[in-house]
């Protein structure tokens, strides 16, 4: 009796296994995945010229061009980022940083009563527009060793606006540099002579056909 029951159980187990295997085989035949020849993802091709446009970084505008269109009011708003450490009015007190009234054009580390870092004292020079732009962009890179904790302003237009505001509170500030010279394109190379004829060889080289060139006339003496 036990053998019959055992056989029934074993038969049921084997039958179930055969059913599962059969279902897997049939499903694999119906839904077999398509395997590409080369593994990877099928990505859409970029539009023509898009890769070149994305790779080419826009050239930065020269500082004189940015200063020519700078907005003093926007610069004053940006200066609020500095108000916790600096004052801007004439005769204003030093705080964590020195008073910045008249900063444009004055020597570095020269405001009376403020204890500057050794790095800034040893830098030398004056706060011209290029120096201010570099320092406002990244103080620690412009003056390694400075104790100024400000991270800097990355946007060139915002820096130009802030510099314009600093100029407005600096009575002795020099004028902005000319924007026209910075924005002028490079001169084009000289066009070849009409007809594409090559320039005459220098140094009295022989003319075509092997005939020697005529000697050059002596130069006239310079005016005394």
TrEMBL record:
Residues 70-170 form the Cytochrome c domain. The keyword Metal-binding applies. Residues 187-224 are annotated as: Disordered. Its main location: membrane. It is found in: Cell membrane. PROSITE patterns: CYTC. GO terms for cellular component: plasma membrane. One of its GO terms (molecular function) is metal ion binding. Keywords: Cell membrane, Electron transport, Heme, Iron, Membrane, Metal-binding, Transmembrane, Transmembrane helix, Transport. It is a single-pass membrane protein. Pfam families: Cytochrom_C. This is Cytochrome c family protein.
